[in-house]
TrEMBL record:
Origin species: Reticulomyxa filosa
Basic and acidic residues bias: start-end ranges: 7-16
Transmembrane segments: 541-559
Skewed-composition ranges (Low complexity): 17-35
Top-rank taxon, per record: Eukaryota
Protein name: Uncharacterized protein
């Protein structure tokens, strides 16, 4: 009875423990779910509010548009075609393209030379010059010309009907740097030259009619008066036109003009914008042999007031896109991803060594995963022909990848049992290259030279494939590393797939053959071994049987045989 009671108590305790563990797991899951639910609730609430505000925004905006639908349609279709052909390309919307603009005093090539000659791998002169030196020069030019620019704009809009003119502050250096690094990160050097709105003015109007008149007045003023000598239009960004074309294209694709999200004007059936829009004109301002690109914004007052609530909700709603986008960007910009994309290209790999030296020092298993054949980073690197020795030397001798990682990879074979130094014998052009991929001292005897992999490919067979250097010199050098007994075995051992011996491989791969080369790969008693001339291969390589005739012809030619060989 006492034993039964003890068993019952023990079972009860174990059940209680299991229940507690389950409860803890459920609580953890609930906490995670609650976090997700909280964010989803916020997201759904914001989406709902955005939808409600959009509809309210569109209804109020439609009332204003329907006062004169033709005017709004003209605005939506207006596009300025008087831009000089040089500025019709987006790549030329820069501060260094106009005459007397802000240009870089040091070119990209010169900065690259400075970086290459520097002993500090963390020094990046191109980055420093672009976002500090050049951008500071641009900011200085902006502050120098700002008063003249604003005065000129104020004079132009003084006689513009229904216009309220506002002078904007010069964009701060920090804000310009952020914009250049984020918005123009893929543009050409200097990227900061793409910031063309450091000088800003705003013309605000009471209606779409006066906005249209103001835009046309401004353009005409530049084209037909002496202002044209001081001002030139570089770019026009008509957001009304962009929204109109975008929604019109969507409607044509979806064939769904009755969607709840689409609201149209009464008579002309114009799509009503669902967010704030304006017209921005970037102008080249010329003053005393200096020029700079500024921006003039044309806006409707009540449209901005209507769009303010939407703007505040958008700031919360788009956080999800920001987080997901940031995560995707981190993945794209990760060192492992960039190393994989470099693909052993010397230029791309050297850039990673310059910019991310510490990442090489932090090398882990996840940095570069083996491929489907089990080939690690150094296996794949050894197979790269035309590998620059200086780059590979710096990378593998302890300054970048830790020595213990290098030795471990050099001592690890792939799925076929092949080591990096064996691939190096096939692809590399000098013995110095070979030494980088050897996990042992090449000047001392080592059993690794006598190793043969799982598909019966020896160092001799790999060396026979090498077309990057004198194969005869390579094989003579290799013969001095391998015991004579093993050399005799290797020259007679055919590979598993093709069934070729090293001699057959040489005849197939090399363009320059000699009697010395042929003899080097013949077994000492080849005349008494007819099986040496046999090619055993799988069905995939059945064509290689035909190679035997060419092989016999070459052998007879160089060895000057008197009697016909016997083949089995």
């Amino acid at each position: 009875d006492d034993e039964d009671e003890k068993k019952e108590e023990k079972n009860k305790k174990s059940k209680d423990n299991n229940n507690n563990n389950n409860n803890n797991n459920n609580n953890n899951n609930n906490n995670n779910n609650n976090n997700n639910i909280r964010w989803q609730k916020i997201q759904r609430l914001c989406d709902k509010e955005v939808h409600t505000e959009k509809q309210a925004f569109q209804r109020k905006l439609r009332e204003e548009i329907e006062k004169n639908e033709q005017v709004f349609e003209d605005l939506c279709k207006w596009d300025y075609d008087g831009i000089y052909h040089k500025y019709r390309s987006k790549q030329n919307w820069r501060q260094d393209v106009p005459e007397n603009g802000v240009t870089a005093m040091v070119n990209e090539h010169e900065l690259l030379l400075v970086q290459m000659n520097s002993s500090d791998v963390s020094f990046h002169p191109k980055h420093i010059y672009d976002f500090d030196v050049y951008l500071s020069d641009l900011c200085t030019r902006a502050h120098k010309l700002n008063d003249s620019f604003q005065s000129e704009m104020k004079t132009i809009f003084a006689s513009c009907r229904g216009c309220h003119f506002f002078s904007g502050p010069v964009k701060t250096l920090e804000r310009c740097k952020m914009k250049a690094q984020l918005s123009y990160k893929r543009e050409t050097y200097p990227k900061s030259a793409h910031v063309i709105d450091m000088l800003r003015s705003e013309a605000e109007f009471d209606s779409f009619a006066t906005l249209k008149e103001g835009v046309l007045y401004f353009v005409k003023c530049i084209e037909t008066t002496k202002k044209g000598k001081m001002l030139e239009i570089m770019r026009v960004k008509n957001e009304f036109r962009e929204q109109y074309n975008k929604r019109d294209n969507n409607n044509n694709n979806n064939n769904n003009n009755n969607s709840e999200d689409n609201i149209y004007s009464k008579y002309l059936k114009l799509p009503i914008p669902n967010k704030y829009g304006d017209i921005k004109i970037n102008v080249i301002f010329k003053h005393k042999n200096e020029s700079i690109v500024g921006e003039v914004q044309f806006a409707v007052k009540f449209m901005r007031q209507l769009g303010q609530p939407l703007h505040e909700i958008y700031e919360v709603s788009r956080q999800q896109d920001l987080m997901l986008g940031s995560r995707a960007q981190l993945t794209r910009n990760s060192f492992a991803f960039q190393l994989k994309m470099a693909g052993f290209n010397s230029h791309a790999l050297s850039q990673l060594m310059l910019f991310y030296p510490l990442q090489f020092r932090r090398w882990s298993h996840d940095t570069f995963e083996p491929n489907s054949l089990g080939q690690n980073f150094l296996c794949q690197m050894a197979m790269r022909d035309k590998l620059q020795y200086a780059l590979a030397h710096d990378l593998l001798t302890g300054d970048f990848i830790p020595s213990d990682i290098v030795h471990k990879q050099l001592s690890t074979c792939d799925k076929h049992g092949t080591y990096p130094f064996m691939y190096a014998l096939w692809k590399q052009a000098t013995t110095d290259h070979f030494a980088l991929f050897c996990p042992f001292d090449m000047n001392k005897p080592n059993d690794m030279w006598c190793y043969i992999d799982k598909v019966y490919t020896s160092c001799v067979s790999f060396a026979a494939r090498n077309t990057a250097m004198d194969v005869l010199a390579l094989l003579i050098w290799l013969e001095g590393k391998i015991d004579k007994k093993y050399w005799e075995e290797f020259v007679q051992t055919p590979e598993e797939h093709e069934g070729f011996t090293p001699l057959m491989t040489v005849i197939l791969c090399q363009s320059n053959l000699s009697e010395q080369l042929i003899k080097l790969l013949l077994p000492s008693n080849y005349k008494e071994k007819p099986q040496f001339w046999k090619i055993n291969c799988i069905e995939k390589y059945v064509w290689s049987y035909l190679f035997i005739y060419f092989f016999c012809f070459i052998s007879d030619l160089f060895l000057k045989k008197k009697k016909k060989m016997t083949f089995k």
